[in-house]
Amino acid sequence: MPKDAMQRYAESLEKTVQHNYSHLKEMVEDFKALCLVVTPEKHTPQDIIVDIRQLYKEIRDRLAEIKAIQQLLQGKYRQYYRRDSLRDKSITEFGFLTKNLYSKFEYILLQKQALAKKKEEEISRAAQKGFPFQWFHSRDHQAIFMRNLRILNELDYEIPTDPDIAERRKVDEGQVRYLTLFCIRGKAGLLDEVYSRIRLREHDILERYTQDELHGLLAHLKEVNPAELERVFRRLLETETLSTLKCILIAIHSSRELEGGLLDLMKKTLDEMEEGTVKTLIV
Length: 283
Fold this sequence. Notes:
- With 283 residues, the chain is of the alpha+beta class.
- Helix content is 60%, strand content 12%.
- It has helices spanning 3-37, 46-75, 85-129, 131-135, 139-155, 163-168, 188-197, 226-236, 262-272; strands spanning 178-185, 205-210, 213-220, 246-252, 278-281.
- Helix 9 (262-272) links the parallel strand 4 and strand 5 (278-281).
- Helix 2 (46-75) runs antiparallel to helix 3 (85-129).
- The chain is rod-shaped, with a radius of gyration of 30 Å.
- The termini are far apart.
């Protein structure tokens, strides 16, 4: 190959190194910002995890390409190559920085998995003494209740101040946002009629808990005005034959709201309510 052609090729290789270096500066800053979002305490959306892994791969690919080109320039095209020591130092630092950030990121994910497992175990232990096992007799219903509580706990995190991150953290469409527990109490024959009238959606539950009580769960995919929900139940019970029944509603946004004596409070409130009353219990 003629000398001038070799020199032009060496210059094109140098331009490729500089091009990758310029992109690396931006990519490393973006990578650092994404990694700082991931903490053991807060929920990390799956798309951020995917972005971090993809960006890390792209950074490693560009670093590998730079290294391969520099080895070629230092060998076959040595006479046309002038090292940029400051740039080489920055490139080396990019490698160390991203490797350390990625190692910390993966370690935090392991921590989060361990923490999530621990929370699941705590919820399960608490549930065996608490609401899912007290609110429903059916094991299937208890399992659905537990699953919905797990979803609520995953969503129960502080909303970030960064609007871009907040946008990423939006709840997926179709994801349960909160639950409403309800209890309808009255004569057995009347409850049979109510049971046949209630229309359940995919994630809702209705159970004949005792002869004089129906227990249910409504899974909401969006915020519902409590007053509107009360009106729905009033319309259900507004017929003359059902006017002696009483109903209590409890909105649940987190498993923490099930702690304490909530079941006893619900029963006490129901005992004190007049017939034909629908009431929302604030916890």
